[in-house]
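Course assignment 3, question 2. Fill in each field.
Student: A.L.
Task: Predict the tertiary structure for the chain below.
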Amino acid sequence: MKKILITGGTTFVSKYAAKYFVEHGYDVYVVNRNSKPQVKGVTLIESDRHNLGDKLKNLHFDVVADITAYDAQDIIDLHNSLDSFDQYIMISSSAVYPEYGVQPFPEDSERAVNKFWGKYGTDKIEAENALLERVPDGYILRPPYLYGSMDNVYREAFVFDCAMADRKFYLPEDGEMKLQFFHVEDLCRLMEILITKRPTDHILNVGNENAISIRDWVIKCYACFDKVPEFVSVPETVEQRNYFSFYNYEYCLDVTRQKKIYPETMSMDAGLQEAANWYIEHEGEVNKKPYWEYIDTNLV
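Answer field:
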């Protein structure tokens, strides 16, 4: 039984990963402050990742899955606390690529500040650098928008709410802006391939091969409840983030490296239905934003 250390373990991606690897027969350790319920079957190391002291000493991990590394200090402190391990996998972000780069972004694209993501993206760049300085053979995954069950971010859940309430959907312009997604289960399956197959490429963009227009994405979200949206077009002059879940920024990753080892990803229809089924039972776990209030006050 392989022993895996997962940072976090109580929110969205890290929580899903903890559950996934428990269910797939791994000996799962999680490190978090124990402020939220733990996934059944994990071993908790109760600590802030910056103050682990000797809690990881005399423990060997086959895999370190660093899902909550947001800056260089996150990497440095965890690495300094580890005793021994075989593999290190860091979940980074597509935010490391500047918006002016040539798309679809390959992994060797320039990494620089992105005007939409700002410090989040540059901190991820510094975290990647810190990891590669300490673990040259570490794996770095750069996903686009992640979605699926346990997602506490108000993205697809906002559209689900609109569908369930039979509301019109206020769509940025003509809705042709395209976004790229990756289901969290696909992310976990890909991590398992890294663990078992040890591919030669160590930095990978990950995501569905094809982007989807936001219009089609909303249609698919409504379809999870057997509904069809009635759209209202909102002009570009209205700040998009006041009423919609995404920035006015279209981008796409080149996932050729991923396809070599993981060619088939979950369909958007199946992934969104899975997310909708989870949301119906866990609405209170999502951090909602006042999009309806803005729409009703300013757009209706």
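Instructor remarks: The longest helix spans residues 119-134. The chain has two domains: 3-147+182-205, 156-180+208-251+258-298.
Grade: pending
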